[in-house]
Amino acid sequence: RKEVEQDPGPFNVPEGATVAFNCTYSNSASQSFFWYRQDCRKEPKLLMSVYSSGNEDGRFTAQLNRASQYISLLIRDSKLSDSATYLCVVTLLTDSWGKLQFGAGTQVVVTP
Amino acid sequence: DAGVTQSPTHLIKTRGQHVTLRCSPISGHKSVSWYQQVLGQGPQFIFQYYEKEERGRGNFPDRFSARQFPNYSSELNVNALLLGDSALYLCASSFQSNQPQHFGDGTRLSIL
Questions:
Q1: Smallest CA–CA distance from A32 into chain B, residue
Q2: C-alpha of B79 from chain center
Q3: What does each of the 112 residues of chain A score in pLDDT, given as a tens digit?
């Protein structure tokens, strides 16, 4: 079983709509959580950290559910520029803190 | 300020050759991590170096090695290249454990 699993998508979203997707993690010792976005053939870029109380950054909202071991990302009022692959990332308490565990990514395609 | 810089951007090698990839972290960052990303997958952790010492190693064969220099730049070396080593190699840096990692543009390595 993979440490971090994501629905690969693609999620086809009309411009202006809301899209949400989850990521599940298998290790209860996971301690830090992030969402990165990656454009085609580019490097991953940090979108936001995910905190236990949930957090919002503009049109993006991230939630963490430790009991069910998943994190979620919601994008409101989708823009064409939101089209990308969204990578779920966790770190483990038992690993070196420099080790990020990535999911395979969820592809989002925002259409006009 | 300059971000994480990697060189070269693209590289073509043949099976059995060796390769050296280079990374310069963001100024002031002392931790460098290396990742391999094959097409359709999330990045996989290879190594982490902090203060010139190896702090973490992923599940990669001994053909992969790395080091960090006094100026915190880093090299990733891969010997006896295989076709399966074709991937995007990403370097990420961070200042300390509770800070997110920032990625360079990557080196795209193709093995013929």
A1: B98
A2: 14
A3: 788 999 999 999 999 999 999 999 998 888 889 999 999 989 999 999 998 888 999 999 999 999 999 999 999 999 999 999 999 999 887 676 678 899 999 999 999 9
